């Protein structure tokens, strides 16, 4: 509303700026729109030139039909197009563009000029447009048939976006290259070249195709012969009865030959796939798009045969134009399809048939599941060993245990060391897994030995499913250091009643106490006032709601990220050690449980990640990696990160594309070996986060193994200073919430104020 409160139309210039920012969102969108215009104009050669990754200049030249003089004025006006005249034409549109928005929006976001020569003209013309898309200058200009569109200072009219664009330019550039690759693959008989120049330096080729009529040749030109060797052509079959039933298509009369799918996918052999989805391209009627359900299905089927990698995918789905709606989003990458379930059924049936023709690959990826008996052993017992840091904390923790339903016992060493053993029944966890706990009398001495060895082994097994669940139902551990044995619950009750019914012999020290009835009365009044204020405020707000349960790990982690900052860890008070494996801390009125092994492992892992420089072993003969132009550029710009990971290269920037980088040194570490697949993974990670120190997944696995071995183990007794050190370390790393193997490091136990209210 304006100052007068009246609703009025937004002025035309403002509307133009607002809407333009919604059409062109990124460098990728800008280049895509210009390339589509060139292909729509019948070009067989498209040349994209970038300066400083596109921040200074984006220029797209083609040899298409050119622009007729009568269209100079309307070329950049909003919703002016030659592709359709009314809405009904949209059903049959076969060109990339049809809305007449792209050039108009680019005018509003940059300084746009055009040099064009129509096929019927003898001389070209240079056209300059203002930010409203109006032609402000024209002059003769030498040019062969075709059109060149130049964008200078992209997004300069939107200060905030321009600043973000410049700050994230390498990420924008990588996304642009990926989008451009999709047009290179599908645009057969069109030679597409992209180059980039940094400052006054040499112009480097980013990608180039030869203008072949084959999609396979285009893939080879972009990604090299090695990628081609791993591909198989897509072979379409009709959906099987089982899969039709899965999609609810049984008995339905299905249209025949509605979809025709062609293209290439990776073989399912382990090692030929990729570590990420960076080379997956989908097209509908040769239009690049992002069909999320199709993409998800392809990856799911591939993981049935190769669960650790992702496939290369280049698939074109041909369908009648009346069954497709491409007018969904500004970038036209979201598309609605009729009979989508039929398409998915055809795709799934075809892929499974293709991969099943190979040798029994699925058995190589089989992961054995825990038997019910092993699961029984792994969650049956949970012992609690509490080492209070002070007598005050001892009283506080005893109160928490009693309010939380713990049965607390003092063992034979409690008088001297202050240690306590606490036990908690977790019938809900056992019932959830339908696990039966046998009566004590049915357990033999052999069973006890099995259980003890099982507990010791579980300390070295890492599983994301492991949580802070107390795991005992009918048995309690007696935690004497000298021996461990199973104690029936009835014995626990007998011991506890005996301990707490008998008076303890304590030597008392007489201290005079100052007493004032007036002060006592005032104190009682203050307490009543405080309690009344708490009651008036209503129930205490619960900041932590997630339960200690594997199914709520993500919710618990999100709460901790939101509520706990780095500086809070050093403020936490150590209450004690829980079960010789967990540290109990208190922050204001909140109690937390910290896994001593998981948190130490995460800290050690992060230190290895940040500071370790892997040593490389030189190769006898340098190895040509056949990287794509953009991958070569990413590697060259991040050489220091590769060197810290133990990789070294010989760089020849004057060599042809795919031959500029040769591997001369590989990292080695005991039984770990690395190779080109790790280099490709690093390139993918750096293309998304340029300049950020990162490690390949196999290096992270090696660091995780090292960190585990050097960390404090479950079962190790810690004093207060040792526990404090582990807790403070959590505030010195970026993501302290999970260890490298996925185990949670910390969980919220209870809020003492809420407990007292309840």
TrEMBL record:
DNA mismatch repair protein S5 domain sequence ranges: 219-356
MF GO annotations: ATP binding; ATP hydrolysis activity; ATP-dependent DNA damage sensor activity; endonuclease activity; mismatched DNA binding
Residue numbers spanned by region Disordered: 441-490
InterPro entries: DNA_mismatch_repair_CS, DNA_mismatch_S5_2-like, HATPase_C_sf, MutL/Mlh/PMS, MutL/Mlh/Pms-like, MutL_C, MutL_C_dimsub, MutL_C_regsub
Record domain MutL C-terminal dimerisation: where: 574-718
CDD domains recorded: HATPase_MutL-MLH-PMS-like, MutL_Trans_hPMS_2_like
UniProt key word Transcription: no
Annotated compartments: Nucleus
Compositional bias (Basic and acidic residues): 471-483
Keywords, ordered alphabetically: ATP-binding, DNA damage, Endonuclease, Hydrolase, Nuclease, Nucleotide-binding, Nucleus
GO CC terms of this entry: MutLalpha complex
Signal sequence extent: none
Pfam families linked to this entry: DNA_mis_repair, HATPase_c_3, MutL_C
Record keyword Transport present: no
GO biological processes: mismatch repair
Catalytic activity: ATP + H2O = ADP + phosphate + H(+)
Family: Belongs to the DNA mismatch repair MutL/HexB family.
Protein name: Mismatch repair endonuclease PMS2
Organism of this sequence: Pygocentrus nattereri
